[in-house]
Amino acid sequence: MTTTTSTRPAFETARPTSKLEVMKQNLFKQKRQISLERAKLYTASYQQTVGQPTIIRRAKATAYIMDHVEISIRPEELLCGNRTVRPRSGILSPEMDPYWIMQEIDTIGTRPQDQFEFTAVDRQYYRENLLPYWSGKSMKDFINAKITPEVKAAEDDLVIKLNQTDKGQGHIIMDFPAILQRGVGAYVTTLTAKQAAHPDNDFYTAALIVFKAMQRHFDRYATLAQTMAADESLPTYRRIELTEMAAMNHRLTTAKPQSFYEALQLLWMTSIVGQYESNASSLSLGRMDQYLYPFYQASQQAGVPADFTWEVLGDFYLKTDDVVLLRSAESAKCFAGFPTGYTVALGGLDKYGQYAVNELSNKMLDLYQEIQLPQPNLSVRINEQIPRRFLNKTCETIRLGTGIPMLFNDEVCVPGFLSKGVSLDDARDYAVVGCVETTIPGKTYGLHDIALFNLMRIMELAMQDLRDEPAVTYDQLRQHILDKIDDYVKIVTAGSDIVDLGHREFAPIPFLSSLVADCIDNGQDVTAGGARYNFSGVQGIGEPNLADSLYAVKKLVFENHEMSFKALVDQLNADFAGDNGEKLRQHLIHDFDKYGNDNAELDMECAKIFRHYALELGKYKNIRGGEFNAGAYTVSAHIPLGEDVGATPDGRHAHDQLADGGLSPMVGRDHLGPTAVLKSVSKIDNTLAVNGSLLNVKFSPNTLKGDNGIRKFADFLMAFTQLKIRHVQFNVQSRETLIDAQQHPENYAGLVVRVAGYSAFFVDLNKRIQDDIIRRAEHVL
């Protein structure tokens, strides 16, 4: 890629000083507020398209939004495209589920987690206009009508929780390399030809509607930038920048990008159009350092100043923090702190099996060290080839304490995908979507977050079933748990398929589908099975607690004969009431080993249970012909799912949280240091967690101080790699700092911590999640 420009355009040297800090401050000046704009425009379009195919109606609604939404170019921005004029607004999608919004309409500003202002005027409009229109017509209505009594009973049993029933489907990475290499105009040309050849194919018609609207949307910004540039009250540098923004946006209506600046603009606008279409979480960004590197090189060779490249990439980072997702109060418990899922994977293998790191990989970590916000959610792919310099820079970035980047192990993730029939080239190109889910970018519709599966609730039900069996054995208990896992796996796959069908019938996404491999060739939306890879991911939650509990029951009841099985169940049902109950609880906590301390007998219980669950889930095919994949991560659902479980034999009180993360030890139970934690997790076959797993580790900040701290930490990460663990992430904040932030939040507005597969502002989290992070064991090396 080359450019014929020999001298730098004025706009690339116009800005006198960096404006990143100004833009960062501007993002957070106003309180988060509900925006009805998309909902009003979407509804207005739907009222005009009654009787037309759903995919056409969806496309026309997306186009109508792009043609009519209020747009702005905020002070100092170099990149165009915002979902709303007001930063960090919560956007409603009543076409998905109008009911939860109505239930929370008066409490959304004061609820425990992720509050939004909802003005009186907008609340009245919602009650009088949007709710009546969408009641009985939403995706939620369709899904509820399809839920079988068996699925409903499993939900009532608190074993399964179906996700994505009230929002557009995300957790996808579009084929950004393709649109950057081809440009919007090439897609319009291709879709026009496909539509002409297949006039009865609604997918081609719908996709073309949205791509043409994208061209008009670019032109709207070009016109706005040109108008703003005429304002003589603006500084000269800003008028020069706006003039170039106008020209660039007009060029990108048809032409492919040539420079790093143009590539970032098209990348961001593609992301925004995806948001307009589905208003979904985790439309992630893939391997940015790989597909943007040719543009970066071209701009370097053309003499673009490094300061300008830094500034425009910084603008891109900040724009990812402008998107916050509005969730129901129940959903916010599981995804607390606005994890929008602008996840990026740096480094990792290339198609030749070599480690692919470049100057842009390093620059992206350097820039994050300046920005230090929850998004983008950077991750680093690690394997034994990783250059020590890049590994050290990764460690230095983690040392900042924001929990970014997280680490993914190529030595596990690639074989996992190969086991699912993914080609070698595609497996080596995996990226991270959402929190910790792994996917094949631009080729997968994975429904990575379709359901949660509460393994601890299954154990509780199994123990109740066997309470009155006089001669129950440990083997019978264990087998009964496995049998119940099998029964509920069958049900959760059926429930997941109902949600999958709901998205097919009510929420096709033709624009995004056009940027997923094979959909244009097949003439099918991803929701109809058009993607190359079609997975569904169900998270098994509670493995560490289950292992601890099984081990304690085995020793207490069946080997030591300290009490009968029935007596133990009765104590659990009473939540360890009374002095004797509390003595038993302390006995269970302190006198029996716990997962995370390298006890092979105990750890293998965790490994065997997860293997059984993963293999059982993999027996089922979804309605798109793809496999169900197991995950082992909780996001922040370990707190609400813990609320669904009574007291357990690991000494946990009724309704207390489960182990955080997914494969992390129960809080405070890992006593032998971080290496012992790795050894415990390594006994699980991590290749089976194809949908993703999560390991949280917390370090004392003093541990990572100085060059010696970085050296020891880098060695620890190489041990993680060699032990074939899929994922790890870190909090590097002292307990004292976190407690002070909890007590004096006004002093810690910018404190970012790792929650689960994402980072968030500590003061944005409710007290239960803050307490969970504080209680996690603080390790040293």
Automatic annotation (TrEMBL):
GO molecular function: lyase activity
Entry annotated with the keyword NAD: no
Glycine radical domain span: 661-781
GO cellular component: cytosol
A Pfam entry, by short name: PFL-like
Gene3D superfamilies in UniProt: 3.20.70.20
Keywords: Lyase, Organic radical
Glycine radical modifications at: 757
Statement: the UniProt record of this protein carries the keyword Transport: no
Domain of life: Bacteria
PFL domain mapped to chain residues: 18-653
InterPro entries: Form_AcTrfase_GR_CS, Gly_radical, GRE, PFL2/GDeHydtase_fam, PFL_dom
Database matches in PANTHER family: DEHYDRATASE PFLD-RELATED, FORMATE ACETYLTRANSFERASE 3-RELATED
NCBIfam families in UniProt: PFL2-3, PRK09983.1
Protein known as: Glycyl radical enzyme [Lactobacillus casei]
UniProt organism field: Lactiplantibacillus mudanjiangensis
